[in-house]
């Protein structure tokens, strides 16, 4: 019956960290203009560099805005309004993001949906004004575009990215067209829900099911759902995860650690 692959996008197919970090700085300046008053390009570049290190904690794009502001507050005591920013290190963010995030959302009086809308709008404007630069701030991992083009398996994209951005990158950067109905983006529900939908479709009965993700927390959520026991689970070791998470995954029988070269071979 063949193989069905449900693939995460950011961190599995595409390294979008450069683009998302720059977009997050742009959006943070719109959201909190006073805080960025007097922030020079040196400090902005430092923030973008740090964002590459803390990227594994991001589940949904809007969190990048929170991280940008948190990094700024950790550097500039004069603008600090969060109780967690003082003495905060990138290691501290990697270890404790799930506890930090609700605290700063409340202290800064932020709304998740409003931040999602703003982040999308800033990206849309960048794409409209200068598509080439927006595309160029992303890169597909080596071998991935060809693996997608020549895949004999059935491919679905299951991502927390807004579908229009994933689609634009697949077409413009990878030269791949994946039908819109096979891209499950932000707003289609949690990934566990999407996987349940996919496995129930009549046309997928009898297929081998594979889910490739770079976030260990997401794979652990899948393991908690007995209904999803039929999925083969993979953690891409080239994506946005830490050595500590890869070590943990190696000790979880359900999860297979996957290398990029093996991933490309599997799709073919």
In short:
By secondary structure, the protein is α/β, with parallel strands linked by helices.
Notes on the structure:
With 268 residues, this protein is of the alpha/beta class. The chain folds into two domains: 3-15 and 139-267, Rossmann fold (3-Layer(aba) Sandwich), CATH 3.40.50.1000; 17-132, no CATH class. Helix content is 51%, strand content 12%. The chain has twelve helices and eight strands. The radius of gyration is 19 Å and the shape is globular. The relative contact order is 0.17. The model has no long low-confidence stretch (mean pLDDT 96). InterPro entries: HAD-like_sf (IPR036412). This is Ribosomal RNA small subunit methyltransferase G. It comes from Hibiscus sabdariffa.
